[in-house]
What we know:
The chain is of the alpha+beta class. The chain folds into 2 domains: 126 residues, no CATH class; 31 residues. 21% of the residues lie in helices and 34% in strands. It is built from 4 helices and 7 strands; from the N terminus they run βββββααββαα. The chain is elongated. It binds zinc ion (2 copies).
Amino acid sequence: MSKQFLVDLKDLAHEKISFEASFEPGVVDFASENVQQVGPLKWTAAAERAGNEIRIAGSLNTNVELPCSRCLEASRIAISKPFDLFFRERDKAMFDEDEEIELNEKETRTAFFTGTQVVITDILREQILLALPMKALCRVDCKGLCSHCGMNLNSGSCNCPNDDFSPHMDTLLEIKRRLEERGS
Length: 184
Ligand SMILES: [Zn+2]
Ligand SMILES: [Zn+2]
């Protein structure tokens, strides 16, 4: 698939390596049905050795679709994100230590990898997922779904009882009923 988009520690001994590509949907697997890439994912990255670490800096541009958190219709989000990441080869000894290792600020933003390679698609997936909003809306004033019949209220209104009022009313009636029960 994209074997050439690996950063290998061995290749970075003396030189910086630059990458640039455009991925069609499917190259980066988001492992979620809810996240769909729409159109190309354009990215550039440069990898260099920084001491014991690999530094990979670049940027990405793409569009993804997420279900609107109110009406569940697809809502499209443009993502444009720079990144500057440090990777350190996973060191066994580090994890065998009993005493706690204090992490300084730089270390907390260092990811670890096993072997000698860092896979670019993994970076892209993570960066895109990080850029997603907690709640996606198809539009700011999305009316959502009717809580009775499930109709999408953006495309019309249904004949259900007034939605703003009834759930509230039910709760009040329920409280009143319980109070009456207790009183009797
Ligand atoms: Zn919506
Ligand atoms: Zn309804």
